Q: What sequence folds into this?
């Protein structure tokens, strides 16, 4: 397992394939901190002819509606916002 911690923004999203996929060609899964960046990761993998999920798994975080429109479908973790807010309010009371 390798942890790669880097903030990806609009300017450096394209660097993902250069920095990770080229430097670590044996990598078989990437978890992104949000679905927007994960969808960009899917695109960059497809540009490199890497097949998802056969060669590399991609997952995101937030479970935004647009993740259902990406091909292949994006695996995403949903943030339980209501439960987090409810628990925080109960702790404050």
A:
């Amino acid at each position: 397992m390798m942890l790669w911690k880097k903030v990806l923004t609009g300017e450096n999203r394209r660097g993902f394939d250069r920095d990770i996929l080229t430097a670590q060609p044996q990598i078989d899964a990437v978890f992104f901190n949000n679905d927007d960046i994960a969808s960009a990761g899917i695109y960059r993998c497809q540009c490199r002819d890497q097949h998802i999920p056969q060669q590399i798994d991609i997952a995101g975080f937030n479970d935004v509606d647009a993740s259902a429109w990406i091909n292949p479908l994006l695996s995403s973790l949903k943030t339980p916002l209501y439960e987090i807010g409810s628990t925080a309010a109960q702790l404050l009371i």
Notes: The helical segments are 15-22, 35-47, 81-92. The chain has a mean pLDDT of 82. The CA atoms of residues 31 and 59 lie 5 Å apart.
